[in-house]
Every structure is written in structure tokens, then in C-alpha cells.
Amino acid sequence: xxxxxxxxxxxxxxxxxxxNERFPERKEQFTNHSGIEIxxxxxxxxxxxxxxxxxxxxxxxxxxFTRGIQPSMYRNRFWTMRQxxxxxxxxxxxxxxxxxxxxxxxxxxxxxxxPTQIGYDSDDxxxxxxxxxxxxxxxxxxxxxxxxxxxxxxxxxxxMTINAPASVLLCMYIAVAEKQGVPKEKITGTIQNDIxxxxxxxxxxxYPPKPSMRLITNIFEYCAQEIPKFxxxxxxxxxxxxxxxxxxxxxxxxxxNGKAYVDAALESGLEIDQFAPRLAFFFNAHNNFFEETAxxxxxxxxxxxxMKDKYQAQNEKSLRLRFHTQTGGSTLTAQQPDNNxxxxxxxxxxxxxxxxxxxxxxxxxxxxxxxxxESARIALRTQQIIAHESGVADTVDPLAGSYYVEEMTDxxxxxxxxYIDRIEEMGGAVQAVEEGYMQREIHQTAxxxxxxxxxxxxIIVGLNEFQLEEEVHEDxxxxxxxxxxxxxxxxxxxxxxxxxxTVDSKLNNLKQAAQxxxxxxxxxxxxxxxxxxxxxxxxxxxxxxxGEYTGV
Amino acid sequence: xxxxIRVLIAKPGLDGHDRGALVxxxxxRDHGIEVIYTGLRQSPAQIAQAAIQEDVxxxxxxxxxxGHKTLFPRVVEALKERNAEDIPVIGGGVIxxxxxxxxxxxxxxxxxxxxxxxxxxxxxxxxxxxxxxxE
Lengths: 552, 135
What we know:
Chain A is an alpha/beta fold. Chain B is α/β, with parallel strands linked by helices. In chain B, helix 2 packs across helix 3. The two termini of chain B are about 15 Å apart. At the A-B interface, helix 4 and helix 17 of A face helix 1 and helix 3 of B.
């Protein structure tokens, strides 16, 4: 055995044994239907134990993490099945959450409506027509209490898709946990908190880049001290891909953004190993199966190398790229929507073979509306079938060593690094975003994709080939238009019942704190939230100090 | 020669999904149409104002957030209030079939749902404005 290979092997063996002591493998012995035993890990033979293997691929749970971040991956525990949900009122969404937990879902993921995401209360004139539409409407702590009612926050981890007002919603989550008697150092979950991709692709920005980056580093610092188990950011390629990018651009722009957050935190005086272990990532899974799997493997390796070589992180946890995956919304067709179940299954499989930590599978009807309960259940069942029936989770990184997948992984890494270097030359991701560079690159790809579909160079089943006379789709989920009025009334009631002078003084304290760049605003926001100041009031206070971003 | 057809592509409400709006804008330009894109987060009043100021022939709205039933008719109304109801309003996005009849009743000329080839939208605009088909 090659000496370096042997050392890595032994180290992996020890790590796997230790992990298995804490989390025993799912089965004592894994076998397939023919009775053949499945090993934890398959390795190259003597000839394959070259420097290339030990340097570029390595063992799972070891640098450069090409084969995954855990020594035994899904042999211990499956990925977290985390379906993004939320619509209408806090009451309705709480009911959907409890339904999903009953059905075997293992983590929550909150979708907020657009007014909440952009820092407007439901009764703001800007919110008209949008309240409760794409997610749940949250105005004050009162709504958050209802949303999380009877959900044990010491045991359930919650992911919140919230960016510009991430600090506010995180404080609300902390406040509810404390009311439930759960100390804040025990809560687990993720806030998206990734403002750069909002400027690039998703559109729910509020403040300009500079104060937004300050809010983000404030959160990093606060969480490192107060809620060490919370993921402080989910650096997202998902929306970049949905906006039209290629897989390479998705990884490149995401990791370039990741570097920008790291640079900002270092500049504010934090140490790399203080915050890097709590950075999380979020990727998309589209249809090109092997390309997607290779993409996930490449992303892990690139990040590990950046963190080790460029940022000299010492803590091994800082090197591990942990990620959530969602299947590709823009790949779903409004035509013959049941076909989407198959697309989602393939995409989900690519994410599992790529070593994802958690997964959201889209519902078949999402090109038409928000999913019905039945569609959401099929989407969850798709993950459960992959986990429990397909056997793909019985060994670690089964595609490693495939000539095709390894070559694709290398090539994606190379092309991603070319982009990252180019962005670096432009002055980094913040600069590139402000100049509209990524936006233009993505838009160009989106337009080319559309042309390929229209010329039938790309075939989309049921859309430009194999079409049917379409029937009208019934049974879509509708958000009741009366909801907006009820939510407005609820929030106005909260305003009446709270102690206004406390709210005013807390908001004023926040205003003062915002003016001094050296102050961390998090404790001030927490006090505002606890006094039942609303998302809109808090965000308006900060708008007055920070200004608003208006696009490139 | 006639002047070029001018179209305002607008994103009403708070929706940030602009892939569709940008792709349509580019496709219209490639077919010889002048396009003014408003950017995100435009109120119905701002959209109507821009349509008049830019002297456009058609207003195209895009929404993927489910707010279309409120926001699209508001744009039609806002144009009417400014005596510009002769500017046809068309729309697209994630819009369930059953909402289309309602939107048409409210004065939206045509709704394009996901998967519509851009050429179909181009042809519709050209025939609406000039009674002609694609070149």
C-alpha cells in the first residue's frame, strides 16, 4: 500500500469508528438483494493509490472532502429532509409544519412572504396584493409565537429563508425559544442571510451593500458568542441557478460571494476559525445528472482548498463545505405537471450522490402555484424512497472513481477557479455585483437557454416535444384573499396592545446604535423585537440610517 | 416608415424574479421592438406613469409571486385614471389557468403562461399594435 494512502486510510478508519460510537450505523450489516455485503467505502486498487487520489479525492471526512464531509456519510444518518413551506397566516403555516413533522420530515424550513422579506408590515401600502402569497406573513413577535406554537425548538432545527431582515427574524426566533424555556445556546437552524445573491438574482434586498455587510458580520459575531449551534448564513447558489446560470457559474458566484463574507468578517476583526465553521451553503440540483453530482463534489473541494490555502484556517470544521440542496424550480413544467415528479426524483438523487446534508424536493405543481398538501407529500415521499429503498445511501460516495465523474469534477473545479480569479481581479464579489457583472453573465446564459428550447436544440419533455392538448389544472392551492385584511387587523391590534413608549425608546436605541459602525446592533434588535416592535418598524429605522439599494 | 414598436416591461409589486421579464425584453429587442424595462418593485401608479412618459404601445407585466390578481388590474385602472386606457396591457408569470378569465375581464388583453415561446409574444404584440404578423 502506498504510504500516504495508508496513513489517510487509517485516519479515516479511526474517524469512522469514533463517529459510529456516537451515531451507530443504520444497520449492523448492509447487504443488497442478492445478499452481497456492501462496504462502507470502496477504494482504488493498489495501482490507483496514487498521489492524484490522495491529493485530489482522498477519504470522506478528510481534506479536500471530495468524497463528503463525514467518514461514513448516510450509513449513520440520512440527510435532513427539509421541505420549504409557508403561506398565508402563521396559523395555517403552523398547521402545515406540524403535518410535515408528523409525516416524518426532520427539520423545518420557513418561507416568508415578500413584504416580510423586504421589511414591510402587512399594512404598508407597498405590501398590497403580496401578503401571505409566497410565504407566511410575519409582522411582530406575536406572529412568530403562533408560527412556532407546539414545536419543540430544542429538538427541531429550523431554516429561515430571510436575508435583508435576517437579524430581525433571528431575534424573533430567539425570543420565542426563550418563551418556550429553551435557552438560546441550544437552538439550531440556519438563516439564509446572503445579501449578495439578492442583488445578483433574487431581488429581496433593502439596504446598500456596505451596511448590509455590516449587519451580516454583526450576526456572525453575535452568534459565535450567543448561539453557537446556529448556522449564521446560507451562501446560496440556488437562486443564481434559477435566474439562469450554468452549474459552473452557480458554484463560482456562490463561492466568490462566500469569500466576500469571509473577507468582511476578517476585516471587522473576527478570526477565521471563530465563524467559518458556521458558514453553510445552498445549491440547486438540475437535470443533467452527472454534471450535478460532479458539481457538488467540486464545490466541496474548492472551498476546502480556499479555506486552507488562502485563509489558513486551522480548525478542520472551517474547511468543510456543508450544504442544503433544493431541486430546480425552473426545470419544472406547467405542462403535464405529473412529469415533474420524475424530474425531481432524478435531481434529488444527484444531490444525495453529491453528499448533501439536507434536501428539499419540489412539488409537481410549482410551475402553477404553491403546492397542495398532496403534492408536498409526494415530494417528501420521493426523498424517503431514495433513502429507504434505493440503497444509494448504503455506501459513501458511490460515484467516486468513475472516469467520467472524476474528470467532470476536475473540469468544473478548473472553470470555477477561472471565474473566481476573474472576480478577484475586479476587486471581489461586492465590487462585481455593484458593476452588474454576475447579473449580466447570468442573463446571457438564461437567454441562450431560452433560444435553445425554442429551436429545439434542447428538448423539454411535454413542453417543446411530446406535447398533449392541455387540460385545465384544478386542485391548486389558493391563498385566500381575505388573509391580507385579517393580517392587517391582527397587526394593528398588536400595535394597540403593546406599550408604545417602550417600543419608541427601543427603536430609538437601535437608531443610535446603527449610527456607530463599531457597535453590534443585534442586542438592540432583540430588545425591539421583545417589545413587539414590528419587522417594518425595525427595518424602516435602519432604512433611515443606511439608505436603500435601488438596483444597478 | 413607421416608428419602432415600443413596449414597457414592468415588474409590479415586490416580486424579485426577473428572469422571465429580462428574457422577454431581450427577445422583443431581437425582433426589432424597443423595450423599456422598469426594474423591480414598481407600483401600479409608477408603471402607468412610465408607460405614458415613454409613449409605449404595449405594457407587459410579469409576476411570479401570486399577486397578479390584485396588481395587474391595478395597472389597467391606473392607466384609465390617466386617460391612457388605449395602451394594451399584457401579462405573464406563474398564473393559474383559472385566473386568466378574471384578468381578461379586468381589462388585461392577454396572459402568457410558463412555457410560451417568446415568438408567440412577439407575434401577439405586433398584431395588436399593427395588425401584422412576425416579419
